[in-house]
Amino acid sequence: MTSEDPLADRLQLDRPHSARVWNFLLGGKDNYAADREAGEMIIKMFPDIALLARLQRGFLVRAVRHLAAEAGIRQFLDIGTGLPTVDNTHEVAQRIAPESRIVYVDNDPLVLVHAQALLTSTPEGACAYVEADVRDPETILEAAARTLDFSKPIALTMLGILGQIPDSDEPEAVVARFLDALPPGSYLALTDGTDTNPALNQAIAVYNANSASSYYLRSPARVTAFFDGLEAVEPGIVPISRWRPEPVDVGRDPSDVDTICGIGRKV
């Protein structure tokens, strides 16, 4: 790419971006020097950050598996997709129900570059990609309606994305707008980082000062409030290491980590 390339300008390769830093923390290769430097800085200040990244990915798999296999959901709206990796939402859902339909949403230009990797559906199902900001629900909902049937239940997944919205943009109102558009029987699966660890708070503050984007940690009570009005799926809104851990994890200490998660059903 040349400097005249508008995509190259949007990628801002000299500054870390959240999706690329997260990709680095997950052991991926779709990142650049600035992203790796930011990731290494966070690891140095808060060594458990890579564990949090893996736990969040594990929750995605378990949540989608539950929603497709136990709740019977066949439509997924995945906002804040991030870069493709192993076990993306459509792969997990379509292994269980090949007819599942998935819409991915992200505003990171590098995710757009890799979107083709996401758009590989089974013949029976469908995948689509929407480039949009989570703070623009109307655009997202209008585009998603080309693939999803909003008269039938939909699972809305928002993993780590609300922490990228400052309080001034009213993240609670953003979530409410999406939920208002979903019919009864739909679900919200959500994770977000909490402000309960001074080391993590400091690491995120340094990251925010050097990144093209910012992340906003919130109290557990505020993250839990995103589920207001929903019926929580067992075991409720809990630290991410405690949400239906895999059998391989039984016997390990499911200590409280600085991310909480849950699934709520709209009744």
From TrEMBL:
Transferase keyword on record: yes
Pfam families, A to Z: Methyltransf_19 (PF04672)
The protein, known as: SAM-dependent methyltransferase
SUPFAM superfamilies from the UniProt entry: S-adenosyl-L-methionine-dependent methyltransferases
InterPro entries, per database record: SAM-dependent_MTases_sf, SAM_dep_MeTrfase_SAV2177_type
Lineage of source species: Bacteria, Bacillati, Actinomycetota, Actinomycetes, Kitasatosporales
Example GO BP: methylation
Keywords of the record: Methyltransferase, Transferase
GO MF term set: methyltransferase activity
